[in-house]
Protein: Acetolactate synthase small subunit
Amino acid sequence: MDCQKTITIIVLNEHGVLSRISGLFAGRGYNIEALNVAPMLDSKFSKITITTKGDNKVLEQILKQLNKLIPVLKVYESDFCGLEAILIKFDIKESLNELSAIFSGYGGRLLEVNEKFAVFMAYDTSSRINNLLQAIKSFSPRDITRSGILSIEAN
Structure:
């Protein structure tokens, strides 16, 4: 049975690191559901958050392979606090008041409006972001961008 797993990786911030990590997944046929990379406060390191799916054997293999990569300093999958951000663009013809009410329930708000489009943003857990997408489905969103999970170790 496949399950979803979020893995956080601390790596040296050097050229080609992301290519080596994504190559590991591609070479072994593992899928990356979401990927997020950003430098840490100390610019010598970056934090990579990967969400993937697989059975327990596959997920264990992914962790072992990641720990073998040279630019990887730490790999963990322990308890974490995580959020996902989303940006959604609608035609200005949609009911912005109704959309504002829906988005406020998900930590969101109207981000920008121009003569053609309105852009809303929200941040919440992945499951609640999925619920938000169901709630706004009838408003016919024009474009959607999701960040993938942003996480920090809870312990």
Q: What stands out?
A: The first strand starts at residue 3 and ends at 12.
